[in-house]
Amino acid sequence: MLPTPYVKCDYEKVYEPAEDSFLLLDSLEKDQLYLSERFNNTLSVVCELGPGSGIITTFMMQNTMPTNNSIYFALDINPWALEATTDTAIRNSCEKSYLETIQSNLTSSIRNNEIDILVFNPPYVPAETIPDIPMDKNDIDTWLDLALVGGEDGMKITQLVLDQLDSILSINGVAYILFCARNKPENIVKLMKNQWSIELVEHRKAGWEVLSVYRFSRKSL
Amino acid sequence: MKFLTTNFLKCSVQACDTSNDNFPLSYDGSKCQLEQDESIEFNPEFLVNILDRVEWSAILQVAADLGNTSLPPNKPIFEDKNSLNEDDMAILRDLHILLIQTSIVEGEMKCKNCGHTYYIKNSIPNLLLPPHLA
Ligand SMILES: C[S@@+](CC[C@H](N)C(=O)[O-])C[C@H]1O[C@@H](n2cnc3c(N)ncnc32)[C@H](O)[C@@H]1O
Ligand SMILES: [Zn+2]
């Protein structure tokens, strides 16, 4: 078992690590060797979407994933999450890693085809609507809603990322994305499997939810 | 925000993706406040790998925006990353200071295509768009 970050944040402002966060940590741990071999001897650009408390990015820095030649971008819409991510990194002695926190709507601010490892524990709970991004940092209830709700089938936000995956990932890039059963991930796999190589890395029952993490990469030519 | 990050940031406006002017953003030197942060240690191998990856012309542009015009016009290349000589090390050390230790703690930058201005506050760049542009 790899060490897990110690996290202490204000959970009125950022998402508290839960079963979904831990399933992603387990998935990355399981793939540690795969990743270190895939990205051996080059710079790796790691990008986490929606880091929240920063638990996942900190875990990757702590365990030098994929290699010690990595830079880490943590992109969230929630300004509190960016502060929390920096705090969590420091609390776990990761100040020697290259970490940048960026306030951004998904990957819209990052150049195309530059991300080698994309990690996303998205807002995936089905809901009728998704609130607008607040203009006010102190609108903390809305920030927390945005951490959870994913619109129709809980797929609204995740689908945006999947639709752009080809322009987000580098040639050799991989994405780790978490789904709950109500997102109907099997349907997504069916629709995408002609173009993408998709692996179920981990799945687990968490309360009444079944969570799963899939890994997406380009089909080798 | 560390200097190297400017090599990855583009304008968030989707319509600017079809232009070549959405990267690098244009930094306002008179409004950017720089600080040196020494927490990341010098690691020559890391720097060589970073150099392999960066777009040098964008490094030159941003450096010039911030008042540094002393960089070599062409990206330094290292024949063999496993046997770096003293000159190589000196170049890499300088680049470490520029790319990794130099950070913009407060500042602003603009898209050269649409002119939208983004801000950096407390070292955190904000690339969110206002609702009418999103
Ligand atoms: C389920 S939480 C995951 C938090 C953390 N990664 C974890 O696993 O504990 C989802 C995160 O995504 C962020 N988020 C929601 N919509 C986003 C968007 N459009 N762009 C970037 N981040 C977003 C939220 O602010 C929240 O921090
Ligand atoms: Zn623009």
Automatic annotation (TrEMBL), chain A:
GO terms for molecular function: nucleic acid binding; protein methyltransferase activity; S-adenosylmethionine-dependent methyltransferase activity. One of its GO terms (biological process) is methylation. PROSITE patterns: N6_MTASE. Pfam families: MTS (PF05175). Gene3D superfamilies: Vaccinia Virus protein VP39. The keyword Methyltransferase applies. This is S-adenosylmethionine-dependent methyltransferase. It comes from Maudiozyma exigua (Yeast).
UniProtKB/TrEMBL annotation, chain B:
Keywords: Cytoplasm, Nucleus. GO terms for biological process: rRNA (guanine-N7)-methylation; tRNA methylation. Pfam families: Trm112p. One of its GO terms (molecular function) is protein heterodimerization activity. The keyword Chaperone does not apply. GO terms for cellular component: cytoplasm; nucleus. It is found in: Cytoplasm; Nucleus. It comes from the Eukaryota. Belongs to the TRM112 family. This is Multifunctional methyltransferase subunit trm112. It comes from Maudiozyma exigua (Yeast).
